[in-house]
From TrEMBL:
This protein's name: NADH:flavin oxidoreductase/NADH oxidase family protein
Key words, A-Z: Flavoprotein, Oxidoreductase
Domain (NADH:flavin oxidoreductase/NADH oxidase N-terminal) ranges: 8-343
CDD domains hit by this protein: OYE_like_2_FMN (cd04733)
Record keyword Hydrolase present: no
Amino acid sequence: MDECTISQPFQLKNKRTTLKNRIVKSAMSEGLAAKNHLPDISIFRLYEAWAKGGAGLVITGNVMVDRRALGEPRNVVLEDGEHLDSFKRWAEAGTQNDTHLWMQINHPGKQVIKGVAKEAVAPSAVNFDPKLQRFFPKSRALTQNEIKEIIDRFATTAKLAQRAGFTGVQIHAAHGYLISQFLSPRHNQRDDEWGGSIANRFKFLREIYQAIRTEVGEDFPIGVKINSSDFMKAGFSEEESQFVIQELDRIGVDLIEISGGTYEKPNMTGKNVKPSTLEREAYFLEYAEQLKQKTDVPLVLTGGFRTRSGMNRALRDGATDCIGLARPTAVYTDYPNRLFQGRAGAISISPIKTGVGLIDDKALLELTWYSQQLDRIGRGKPTKPEFSPLLSLILTVVKNGRDVFQKRRE
């Protein structure tokens, strides 16, 4: 096939949207919203830095569709147009430098921390493993009317994002959030039209997409972030994931981002990844290669990429169309430009290890350490790539207590 590199433009299937290059800044939960769940100067600074950093597409962290359902304390919420000017400022900051800025929209379902939301809702009243469940309230099953209300909320948020100046939206259907819960036979045990077969479990996501498309029109890009697998017994499988993605392609989704795992099995953080996989850099590369044999839907592959040669090889081999980067951009906001200019070779991003076995084994500090870097950018300060993980741990526990390690999401 033709030579393909990260610096080349990419045109989506709608033929009306072209990304200036193949680098996508993937979503990371910023935890920087103001007390009223609105974006403010911290978020504007952060996204201006990312826009100037060179990525063709920047995807925001979770924006929740319902202020009653927050995944963590400082989530941004967009459910009405009352404060749309704040979101317009966000869009203006993040679309500088010919950058596309897509809003990731989400509902956490039962992944809501105790004390953050009054109740947890889910497809079915199925608890997490007891070790994890202690951080969450028990969930109850959604009613038919509530399911339809949530679908409408996704459509409303997407329409408001379009009005604010965002150039697309991404539906978060991965990592164990509500849509992911509907897709999973482990968590969705309904016996009505929303449960049972994978076709039925897909209905929630399908209707969310169709409701959004009705609101935003054909020219506005809609992406979906989805798991290759939940990596859990009786969970969402690779075969089911491939079925869903082929269906999404058929109904017109513009871009699929591949991830994997949930907070019960956090493979998206690099845990449990085989050495042979690490050699090829991307965590879900084999899955993407298999998927590309069945569909030509544009793909973003996120997780593990660190070198220009590894990225170009994945593009050249046809495993993916775009390269997703998250954590490197939390430390070096200009990481894409460094890649394009051949200046990224000396950058080293080591695993965040404290020397405390319980913390390191469960990768509890990984998300928190990176969130501290985002906070520094938002306050107009330089990042600290060499910031001590042990000091990060101490500061985190002093400020937030031990439970904070369950409060950072991707």
